[in-house]
C-alpha cells in the first residue's frame, strides 16, 4: 500500500516536532560535557572541543550522593508500588462494586485533583511532626500515597474490561480476590505501566515535600541533595556542573521510561501491550 501524501507530511511534521523537542535535552547534555571555565566565556560552541567528564566526576566525588540515590530509589520505588496497589484496589472497587454513597465518594476522590499542593503542606507538616515521622522513609512516602489521578485512571480501565471474564471465573468457584488478582489485574498492565511511570517520575523529582520533611543530610533525596550542593552563582560560574546534575538526576527516569515505553503507548492507544 502506497503511503499517501498526507501521511508523509504528517510523518515529517512528527519527526520535526520530535527533533525540536529533543534540542533542549541535547543542549543540556552538551553543556554538561563542557568545563565551567569555557562556559563562562561562551555557551554557543556546544559541538566543539574540548569535552570533559569533570562535572560528573565532581558529582560522584561527593560520598553523600550515593546515599541520596539510595534514598530516592527507596522513596520512589516503594511509593510507586503502593500507589499502584491502592489505586488498583480503589479503581476495582469503584468499577465493579456497588455500595451506598459510591458516586459521592468517587466525586470526593476526583475533587482531590483540584486541591493545590501548597494548600496541604502546613497541615501535613504539623501532622507528621506530631507523629515524629520527619527524617524517615515513612515521612517521605506516606503523604504521596493519595493519588486521585491513579484511582480515576484505574477505574476507567477496569470499566473497559468485559464483565464476562470475571463472571466465568466466579462460576468456577474463584473468590473475588482471586478473580481480581489473577484474571482482571493482569489485563491492566498498560494502565499500570502508565501510572507507574508517572508516579515514579513525580516521586523522583519531588522537591517541596522532601525539603520540608528531610532536614538531615543523610535523609536527603537526590533532587534535594543536588540542590543543596549548588552555590549562589551556579547558573553563571558552574553552568556545566549544573547541567551535569540535571542529566545525572534524569538518567534513572529515562531508563525506566525506555523500558516501559511500549506499555505506555499501548495504554494511550487503548490497546494491549
How does the SSE layout of this entry go?
Blueprint lengths: L4 H28 L3 H6 L12 H8 L2 H33 L5 H10 L6 H14 L5 H5 L6 H12 L3 H9 L4 H9 L4 H17 L2 H6 L8 H7 L5 H4 L1 H21 L1 H9 L4
Summarize the entry for a quick read.
73% of the residues lie in helices and 0% in strands.
Q: Please write the string of helix (H) and strand (E) elements.
A: HHHHHHHHHHHHHHHH
Helix content: over 70%
Q: Please give the largest β-sheet.
A: none
How large is the count of helical segments? 16
Radius of gyration: 23 Å
Q: How many DSSP-defined strands?
A: 0
Percentage of residues in DSSP E strands: under 5%
CATH architecture of the domain at 63-229: Orthogonal Bundle
The low-pLDDT segments are none
Label the structural class.
Answer: mainly alpha
Query: In angstroms, what separates the terminal alpha carbons?
Result: 25 Å
Looking at the structure, the CATH topology of the domain at 63-229 is: MetI-like fold
Name the shape in a single word.
globular
Amino acid at each position: 500500500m502506497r503511503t499517501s501524501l498526507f501521511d508523509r507530511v504528517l510523518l515529517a511534521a512528527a519527526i520535526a516536532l520530535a527533533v525540536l523537542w529533543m534540542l533542549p535535552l541535547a543542549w543540556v547534555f552538551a553543556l554538561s560535557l563542557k568545563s565551567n571555565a569555557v562556559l563562562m566565556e561562551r555557551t554557543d560552541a556546544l559541538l566543539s572541543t574540548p569535552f570533559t567528564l569533570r562535572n560528573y566526576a565532581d558529582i560522584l566525588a561527593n560520598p553523600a550522593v550515593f546515599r541520596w540515590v539510595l534514598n530516592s530509589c527507596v522513596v520512589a520505588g516503594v511509593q510507586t508500588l503502593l500507589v499502584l496497589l491502592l489505586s488498583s484496589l480503589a479503581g476495582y472497587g469503584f468499577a465493579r462494586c456497588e455500595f451506598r454513597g459510591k458516586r459521592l465518594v468517587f466525586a470526593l476522590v476526583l475533587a482531590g485533583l483540584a486541591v493545590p499542593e501548597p494548600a496541604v503542606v502546613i497541615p501535613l507538616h504539623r501532622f507528621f511532626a506530631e507523629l515524629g515521622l520527619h527524617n524517615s522513609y515513612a515521612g517521605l512516602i506516606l503523604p504521596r500515597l493519595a493519588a486521585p489521578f491513579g484511582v480515576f485512571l484505574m477505574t476507567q480501565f477496569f470499566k473497559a474490561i468485559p464483565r464476562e471474564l470475571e463472571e466465568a471465573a466466579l462460576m468456577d468457584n474463584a473468590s473475588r480476590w482471586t478473580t481480581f488478582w489473577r484474571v482482571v489485574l493482569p489485563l491492566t498492565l498498560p494502565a499500570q505501566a502508565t501510572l507507574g511511570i508517572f508516579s515514579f517520575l513525580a516521586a523522583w523529582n519531588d522537591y517541596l515535600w522532601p525539603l520540608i520533611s528531610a532536614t538531615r543530610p543523610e535523609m536527603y533525596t537526590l533532587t534535594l541533595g543536588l540542590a543543596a550542593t549548588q552555590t549562589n552563582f551556579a547558573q553563571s560560574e558552574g553552568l556545566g556542573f549544573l547541567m551535569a546534575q540535571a542529566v545525572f538526576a534524569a538518567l534513572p527516569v529515562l531508563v525506566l521510561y525506555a523500558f516501559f515505553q511500549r506499555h505506555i503507548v499501548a495504554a494511550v492507544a487503548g490497546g494491549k501491550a
